[in-house]
Specification:
Strand content: 25-35%
Shape: globular
Largest sheet: 8 strands, mixed
Helix content: 25-40%
CATH superfamily of the largest domain: Zn peptidases
Oligomer: single chain
Number of helices: 9
Structural class: alpha+beta
Number of domains: 2
Radius of gyration: 21 Å
CATH architecture of the largest domain: 3-Layer(aba) Sandwich
CATH topology of the largest domain: Aminopeptidase
CATH class of the largest domain: Alpha Beta
Distance between the termini: 44 Å
């Protein structure tokens, strides 16, 4: 991966953006994409859009969610310990003994999720529920703690971007910084080819996916795109204990995945497959029955139905502090998206033939 692109990915990963508090990440993303777009804007809730070739047709929305799973302060006890509730799919079983940042109105506060030593736990330890997690911020009592934090302050985990080996990278939040990265890189690749670009490209960094795919619904309704491609992570199943017959066979280093079924538009998916073959981009395949668990599920239902497709990056250990990806897989996504956008003809419609 080119150094400037890797540096951008690191900036995205190092920026904390819990659901409903995505503004810091949106500013980083906008700073990057504004040099590759004709215009940028954001809406009332912070969905952020960069437009290339305005007025082109059809209008293509490339969407990725900006937010990350997190916790939020729910109660402060008399001894100054902070109790929490979930913002998205946090796993309490791996949350103990983690360093965290509490994002307060006065700035960031360091905390640690308490973890009682096994000597004191009274035998076999059970998996905690989220309401049993508590954060120690070093406060002596409730009064001191309340001077520092308050109910509603979001909490994110503190882990850094690292290279495990070769092109294998680790971070707490590749879900979904890789999406933000991919659509920004797509604009970078498309900008020099703008003279050959027929469609309007709306690159969207949307909010609150982890708590219900909320921002994607808002911005898809506002933009009225003719088609949409969502970029997110998917579960890599190439590690022990995963039942591939149940969860599919997805590996790091063998390319991004395309999802078939559900709201994934068959004509659009077929075009993406053809473009990948032409560009010699390897693809893996996934099956969806009713839903994908991504913003695709709400975008394709918006208005009269928006032809949509999901492109995903294999990710080991999702929703953990050690999410693991292959950088080579990630580089293929902007290549695929940019080649697809350049293939779309003026006014082309994606419709199931009857």
């Amino acid at each position: 991966m080119r150094k400037a692109s890797l540096d951008f990915l690191k900036r995205l990963v190092e920026t904390h953006a819990p659901s409903a508090r995505e503004a810091p990440l949106q500013r980083v993303w906008l700073e990057q994409v504004k040099t590759h777009a004709d215009k940028t804007f954001s809406d009332a809730y912070g969905n952020t859009v960069a437009v290339l070739n305005p007025g082109g047709s059809p209008r293509i929305m490339l969407a990725a969610h900006a937010d990350e799973i997190a916790l939020t302060v729910n109660f402060i006890d008399p001894n100054g310990y902070v109790f929490v509730r979930k913002l998205g799919g946090v796993d309490p079983a791996i949350s103990r003994a983690q360093r965290v940042t509490i994002h307060t109105r006065k700035g960031s506060i360091l905390g640690i999720v308490g973890n009682v030593a096994p000597h004191l736990s009274g035998g076999e330890r059970k998996v905690p529920s989220v309401n049993e997690l508590f954060i120690d911020i070093g406060a002596s009592d409730e009064a001191e703690a309340k001077k520092l934090v308050r109910v509603g302050d979001p909490v994110t985990f503190n882990t850094e971007f690292e290279i495990l080996r070769g092109d294998i990278a680790v971070s707490r939040v590749f879900d979904n910084r890789i999406g933000s990265f991919s659509i920004a890189e797509t604009l970078r690749l498309l900008k020099p080819a703008k003279g050959r670009l027929a469609p309007e490209i709306c690159a969207v960094s949307n909010i609150m996916e982890e708590v219900g795919c909320l921002g994607a619904r808002q911005i898809a309704y506002e933009l009225k795109p003719d088609l949409a491609i969502v970029i997110d992570v998917t579960h890599a199943t190439d590690c022990p204990t995963i039942d591939k017959a149940l969860h599919g066979d997805v590996k790091l280093g063998e390319g991004p995945t395309l999802t078939h079924g559900g709201g994934n538009h068959a004509v659009l998916v077929e075009r993406l497959e053809k473009i990948a073959a032409r560009e010699k981009i390897p693809l893996q395949h996934e099956a969806a029955s009713r839903s994908t668990g991504t913003d695709t599920d709400v975008i394709f239902l918006t208005r009269g139905g928006i032809p949509s497709a999901l492109v995903s990056l294999p990710n080991r250990y999702m929703h953990s502090p050690v999410e693991t990806i292959h950088l080579g897989d990630l580089e293929m996504i902007p290549r695929l998206l940019s080649a697809f956008c350049l293939s779309v003809k003026p006014g082309e419609a994606f419709k199931i033939a009857i």
